[in-house]
Amino acid sequence: MMVSEHNHSDQSFRDKIILIRLVEHLDHAVEDLQHVNSADELEAHRILFNSVAMEMTQAQECARKLSEECRNAMPDLPWNDLRALRNIIVHDYDEVDPVSLYNTVHQDVPALSAQLRPFTKISD
After folding, report:
1. Does residue 19 contact residue 66 with C-beta atoms inside 8 Å?
2. Would you say 20 and 32 are in contact if contact means Cβ atoms under 8 Å apart?
3. Helices (H), the chain
4. Which residues contact 15 (CB under 8 A, 6 or more apart)?
5. Nearest Cα to Cα of residue 28 among 53, 65, 45, 64
6. Using an 8 Å Cβ cutoff, are 42 and 101 in contact?
7. If we measure between CA atoms, which residue out of 122, 121, 18 comes closest to residue 79?
8. Residues 73, 79: contact at Cβ < 8 Å?
9. Is residue 1 over pLDDT 50?
10. DSSP state of 99
11. 78-109 burial string, b = 16+ CB within 10 Å, else e?
12. CA distance 104 to 107
């Protein structure tokens, strides 16, 4: 079934599309981080630092767009932590701690992405 055949007013379908985008942003952050071996290297590489920070911001924006029902269906996921990281990146960008950003993406994001991936399947 083609995606365009779905009723786009259906909230569960919209949530699935948003979850797909969220996972893509998380995966891009992890992919970008693979070009460095430490928080110091990340901080020294402005383009990668900005990219990782922006991918995490975009992931949170996707999480924010999910329906409350969808987030409540996954209570074990760190929705509040995603929001807190986004707020630091967006509101205090010059204060982003490279160690926290590096550690979060290196240690926590792969597991989060793996937890979300089963919810991104679009059934026929």
Report:
1. yes
2. no
3. 11-33, 39-44, 46-65, 68-72, 79-91, 98-103, 109-116
4. 66, 67, 69, 70
5. 53
6. yes
7. 18
8. no
9. no
10. H
11. ebeebeebbebbeeeeeebebeebbebbbeeb
12. 5
> Looking up tokens 């970008």, which residue turns up?
32
Token pair in block for residue 100: 């926290």
* Residue where the block lists tokens 């779905």: 6
Write phi, then psi, for 108 (nearest 5 degrees). -100, -35
The Cα–Cα gap between 8 and 1 comes to 14
**pLDDT tens digits, one per residue of 11-44:** 889 999 999 999 999 999 999 999 999 999 999 9
Q: What is the pTM of this model?
A: 0.85
Q: What is the rounded CA–CA span in Å between residue 21 and residue 62? A: 7
Kindly state the tokens that stand for 18: 């948003």
Amino acid at 98: P
